[in-house]
Specification:
It contains ten helices and eight strands. It is α/β, with parallel strands linked by helices and 267 residues long. It has a single domain, classed as Divalent-metal-dependent TIM barrel enzymes (TIM Barrel). The chain has an eight-stranded parallel β-barrel with strand order 1-2-3-4-5-6-7-8, surrounded by six helices. It is globular and about 55 Å long. Bound molecules: L-Erythrulose (LER) and manganese (II) ion (MN). The site of L-Erythrulose has 10 residues, from loops.
Length: 267
Amino acid sequence: MKLGCQDMILPGNSIKEKFKLAKEIGFEGIEIWGRILLEDSQKIKEYKEVSEETNIKISTICAGYRNFLLEPDPENRRKAREDIKKLLEIGGELGAVGLILVPIFGKPQISDLSPYKDAFELEKELLFSQLPELVETAEKVKCSILLEPLNRYETHFLNKLEQAVEYCEKIDSSYLKIMADFFHMNIEEANISESIEKAGKWITHIHLADSNRVLPGMGHTDFENGFKALKKINFKNYMILECGIPEPKIENLKKSFKFMKNILERI
Ligand code: LER
Ligand code: MN
């Protein structure tokens, strides 16, 4: 299991400074916010160069596409698919494991057509109808789509790992996978370790935050048992920090890194 951090939360005034700090702490990968890559193609080159220079890999791209796949306006859905495909291509170029995909934030936006079909049933079908086109690109560029379940206060749609498994099983591609976020799992899963084991075949990426969404070790999430479950499913990919970093940031980042490394070494 490799530890890493999102670039947005790392202290530093430039990409290079952030990557250098990540290296100094001991991280192996950095996750990039997708919008930056879509808005400024120069940044793709810069990330690539800095990644090679520091030997810190680009683990993943976090969302960043316009709109959502489950919006009512077909043009907005088309824009979302267009950006997702572009980001997958960029991810392939940068050697990233995958692109994080949240189908929709908040409440359903499409109409409830009960008794024909309610909004949730329609959303599921809408997602199924758009995934093959996206998965085709993911397979071509070898960059996975990583479905991310979020807690109920952020989305009504995918909350638990098992819900994301349904899409992976039906589409059955090695480039449609799941990412599990400890902060969301802490709210939604009855037993994090059991859920990880059940979804094990599909889990390809991890987000780390403690129960209070700050650095691991500063809350009450049971990372020891969570990491044990990841070991059991033979998880070897990146676990990326996506959390608040209380001051003094660098000191606390180093402390949290040690906390996680200690667990990984003794399990
Ligand atoms: C949002 O809470 C989250 O966890 C992000 O990874 C979504 O892209
Ligand atoms: Mn997350």
